[in-house]
From TrEMBL:
InterPro entries: Ferritin-like, Ferritin-like_SF, tRNA-Hydrxlase_MiaE. It comes from Flavobacterium gillisiae. GO terms for molecular function: tRNA 2-(methylsulfanyl)-N(6)-isopentenyladenosine(37) hydroxylase activity. This is tRNA-(Ms[2]io[6]A)-hydroxylase. Pfam families: MiaE. PANTHER family: TRNA 2-(METHYLSULFANYL)-N(6)-ISOPENTENYLADENOSINE(37) HYDROXYLASE (PTHR42637:SF1), TRNA-(MS[2]IO[6]A)-HYDROXYLASE (PTHR42637). One of its GO terms (biological process) is tRNA modification.
Amino acid sequence: MLGLKLITDPRWVNIVESNIEEILTDHAWCEQKAASNAISLITQNSEKEELVTELMIIAREELEHLQMVHDLIKSKGLSLGRERKDHYVNELFKFMKKDGSRNDALCERLLFSAMIEARSCERFKVLSENIKDTELAKFYRDLMISEAGHYTTFLGFARKYADNVDVDKRWQEWIDFETSIIINYGKNETIHG
């Protein structure tokens, strides 16, 4: 799925179900960070009209997802906890190349963003197919579709703006790296954990 080499063990959902408040809090903050990432990309690339237009849509959708998760938290009588560190995302960030042209840096940031969206999409799929709470199963099914669209948007723009980068080759490097770190995750009640 989405080119990912390692899928999440469905038993991860058992861990999630042991602490729904934690997964929902973590998920809410993931949506906030995704919106912030899109806004940051807009700020750094304001001259790229098509990119800005699409990223505004993504930022708005991510904020809507944050609102949806927050509403779900409240409806379940839970509370939104403090922001959590996302060690998975931090490891991906370290893999991002920091040299090259401005367009090379943009391409790399777009691939980084695509990778996060791809894994989030895959995790939402696992949740939608395995969680016992039918409301949450439908919720994650709907979000899975949205995340897949974000993944393809980021990957498409990486291809569009690549000057000196073989995007397909670099994407394969991202997939290989992600495979090497994701084996350490899937043990916590967090979206990427």
